[in-house]
Amino acid sequence: MHLTPSRSFSRRAGLAALAALGLAIGMPAARAQAVDPALEALIKGPQRSPANSVRDKYRHPAELLTFFGVRPDSTVVEILPGSGGYWTEILAPYLKAHGRYIAANGEKASTSEETRKDNAALAAKLTADPADYGRVEVTEFAADKHAIAPPGSADFVLTFRNIHNWMAAGETKEAFAAFYKALKPGGILGVEEHRGRPDQPQDPLAKSGYVRQDVAVGFAEAAGFRLVGSSEVNANPKDTKDYPAGVWTLPPTYRLKDKDHARYEAIGESDRFVLKFQKPAG
């Protein structure tokens, strides 16, 4: 399986290192932007579940959505919001009056018990709060098997910590092709992922859950996207990325349960890269 297009890993590793340092890669480094007060209010709003709100210190939702450029009138497709709907709780009410929120969750006909549970839990969440979620549109995502949105209709496609799953399934090419098709010319693909070590070879199946930043850039560029920005808002230098159960050793999963729990709690959630890609306008 090819992890990059024609360019070499070594060149991409250099680019990724520069991005991590906030230096120029043919673009200005990400700068702090003013956050919409309405967005801030929703992040602190009563529609947020405690289980999701407690993760804000690791996920920085206001800074992340502002960096990507999401506005109240945007059409946003979120890939695999899952059962918890962390971003659904923020994006759906933010976009309900003037924009459009599309939740591209798992395939309805999937035989996976996890996918079925995720779909059922999200459906129940939406039904329970029509005031906030009554205008949410649910589509299916399974690589490129379904249209996640009408072609050329989305201002943003956002995916959070999913690339390792597509690598394991051998579906990265198809996934990024689906994003490209859904976006308008000039539309933005926002990507967050557990950041792998640049000094080690990338496992093609990403069994640890970590993905090298240069490898992720390669997937997006191979699909036709252009890297236009990066942010270190979700960086975590405490993350050593060498755990017995991969990234799932850390919170919130704690796959080792009580073993060394305090140690992993002190580390916190994973080190993550945040990348902003654009579909060419012409």
UniProtKB/TrEMBL annotation:
InterPro entries listed in its UniProt record: S-AdoMet-dep_MeTrfase_Alr7345 (IPR016980), SAM-dependent_MTases_sf (IPR029063), TAT_signal (IPR006311)
What UniProt keywords are attached to this protein's entry? Methyltransferase, Signal, Transferase
Q: Which GO terms describe its biological process?
A: methylation
Extent of the signal sequence: 1-32
Provide the GO MF annotations for this entry. methyltransferase activity
What's the protein called, per UniProt? Methyltransferase
Q: Which organism is it from?
A: Labrys monachus
